[in-house]
Design brief:
single chain; alpha/beta; Rossmann fold; five-stranded parallel beta sheet; 16 strands; globular
Length: 398
């Protein structure tokens, strides 16, 4: 009897394996464009979560998961929507990790994801305007990065604590830049600070001397550069240093990466900044997980752990729902992200899948301490930095 049972179980297992689904997920990020040096870390983090789940064999009875890249360019909405359409219609992805920059993310959501009923979880689109799309997104859009409405407040706190009461602001002329600049100005002025000028700059220019001249004429103790490190933000900083217009800066998330200190080193000593980041403890754990996975990239780069978490949440929600249908598993994303339930850290996705398969509850912590609020966006923690000796050093986590 035991032999018959064992044989029957083996046949059932073989049949299940033969029927195991291949699930495709889109990794829709700016592989080219003004944040490609950041995406060079974000994409591997998303694929790390995908491989972790696929290798476990525990998703939906042994499904394998494949990540397929699509390029948003960060700034070209036409290219981003075309890439998303290919992922959905040609590749048949069941969810999208992305987009990255706010403008292209909104375009893809409105024109592609919602009409096709596909879930998007962005690891880095931070425009406050995206918070208001929950009335139009059919519950398909989530973010593992916090809104820039929160970042504006954190920027204000950082600068005020350094007794910086007067700043000039320049921002990249798109949804991300304007949203952040406006959120910061509102918070900073409410706290008693003065913004001498709040001016847009265009990316892709060879010469930013005119923009820097206007910023210098307005004056300020520090120049806030809400731009991109691989694009106009870099040009602004270089022109400001070369002309002596400003010698210290404040850098929001779009400017902070390894490339910033590679470009300027000790020339920007004394500058400050912040970016969404897990706590020191979570960051250390995530680095251990990444190192064990054989990654040759720096896992604590901004938005890398958020990318891992975006991918993980999609797959955990599928397991909780017992389905790869976005219109079914979308309702499980906040449920698996938040309490109650057993806490699941980065590197523990197999454990989370097992608990969900058994009908249990999880509280996904992941790489960033995920907690989704409001319309499904991260509550947000930030790493404050100072540039000292040509490196970005952690001051504290907020």
């Amino acid at each position: 009897m035991k032999k018959l049972f064992a044989t029957t179980a083996a046949v059932a297992l073989m049949a299940g394996s033969a029927m195991a689904e291949e699930i495709k997920l889109g990794v829709l990020l700016g592989f080219t464009g003004p944040i490609e040096s950041t995406v060079a870390h974000m994409a591997p983090a998303a694929h790390m979560a995908i491989k972790e789940v696929s290798d476990s064999g525990k998703l939906l009875g042994g499904a394998t998961v494949v990540g397929i890249n699509g390029d948003t360019t960060c700034v070209d909405s036409g290219a981003a929507t075309a890439a998303a359409e290919r992922l959905i219609t040609s590749d048949g992805v069941k969810g999208i990790i992305g987009g990255d920059c706010s403008g292209v993310t909104g375009a893809v959501l409105t024109n592609v994801a919602v009409p096709n009923g596909v879930v998007m979880i962005s690891p880095s689109a931070t425009s406050p305007g995206l918070s208001h799309m929950n009335n139009e997104d059919n519950g398909l859009f989530f973010r593992t990065a916090p809104s820039d409405a929160r970042q504006g407040v954190v920027m204000t706190e950082v600068l005020m604590e350094q007794d910086i009461k007067e700043v000039a602001v320049t921002y990249t002329n798109n949804d991300y830049g304007k949203g952040l600049a406006d959120a910061f100005q509102a918070a900073y002025e409410a706290a008693g600070g003065k913004v001498t000028i709040n001016a847009a700059h265009e990316d892709g220019k060879a010469d930013y001397s005119a923009e820097v001249g206007a910023l210098a004429a307005a004056g300020g103790q520090r120049l806030v550069v809400a731009g991109y490190v691989d694009q106009g933000g870099n040009g602004i900083v270089r022109a400001a240093i070369d002309t002596g217009a400003f010698d210290t800066f404040h850098f929001p998330d779009g400017m902070i990466s390894d490339q910033l200190v590679k470009n300027f080193g000790s020339e920007i000593d004394g500058s400050s900044g912040q970016h969404p980041s897990p706590s020191e403890e979570l960051a250390a754990r995530f680095k251990e997980v990444a190192d064990a996975a054989g990654g040759d990239w720096e896992p604590t780069t901004p938005f890398a752990p958020e990318s891992y978490d975006a991918a993980a949440l999609i797959m955990l929600a599928m397991q909780a729902a017992g389905s790869t249908d976005a219109n079914v598993y979308k309702d499980k994303i906040i449920e698996v992200a938040n309490a109650p339930g057993e806490k699941i850290n980065s590197g523990e996705l197999a454990k989370g899948l097992e608990i969900l398969a058994a009908g249990g509850d999880i509280d996904y912590v992941g790489g960033t301490g995920v907690e989704l609020v409001g319309p499904g966006e991260a509550a947000g923690n930030y790493r404050e930095i100072m540039i000292e000796g040509g490196t970005d050093k952690t001051v504290r986590y907020r």
